[in-house]
Amino acid sequence: MELFIYIFAALFSVINPIGTVPIFVGLTQDDDKKERSRISLWTAINVFLILIISFFVGQYVLDFFGISIDALRIGGGLIIVSSGFSLLSGKFSKKRGINKKAENDVQKRNDIALTPLAIPMLAGPGSISLLIAFYQENNGTSEIIIATLAIMTVCLSIFLILKSAHYLSKILGASGIVAISRIVGFIVIAIGIQYIVSAVVSIIQTNFMQ
């Protein structure tokens, strides 16, 4: 249970679906309730597929390019910390990986569930690197099952939050969403720093052992 909570909390904080609410509302303001539900469902499914593929295949990508787990931790940690600072400054919820031109383009499309919602707004480099690093150290059968369940639960949360996005937007308001995003931002920064510290400690210990 502790492992499940850890993975769920880390993924949910890095992905931060609540920060996506304002953009989802803006992109689906002309859609009816049924269409919003469909987009929410497919966004969650796309995020699940991206995270699962990253979780299981990421290790082989690292091996192919000769990237060490410590290098991944430091790189992923920097990305996560950067995302956290963006959340604290209030810039993350406004940008979330898309510019104005891209936003206008996707509004003209029928389906936005894959881009920009699933990529890059939700399943970004931070969540992908977090899962790859986790798999490197926890690849037992029970651990893989727990991680898969945690990913499924996060994606279920994404579906429920996006499905209720217009309702949440009215209840929380812009200031409420910003407040929650900044609290999550602090947690995200702590997660990123922990990744970097763990990598540095591991490198130092390895060098001393040699």
How many domains? The number is: 1
Oligomer: single chain
Number of strands: 0
Categorize the overall geometry: globular
Q: What distance separates the N and C termini?
A: 37 Å
Task: Return the structural class.
Answer: mainly alpha
Could you name the ranges where pLDDT drops below 50 across 5 or more consecutive residues? 93-97, 106-110
Assess the beta-strand content as a share of residues: under 5%
Element-level helix/strand string: HHHHHHHHHH
Overall mean pLDDT stands at 83
User: What about the largest sheet?
Assistant: none
Gyration radius over CA: 18 Å
Structure commentary:
The protein has one domain. Helix content is 85%, strand content 0%. By secondary structure, the chain is mainly α.
Brief descriptors of the model:
mainly alpha, 10 helices, 0% strand, globular
Layout of SSEs?
Blueprint: H1 2-15, H2 21-27, H3 33-65, H4 69-89, H5 92-95, H6 100-107, H7 113-122, H8 125-137, H9 141-163, H10 165-209
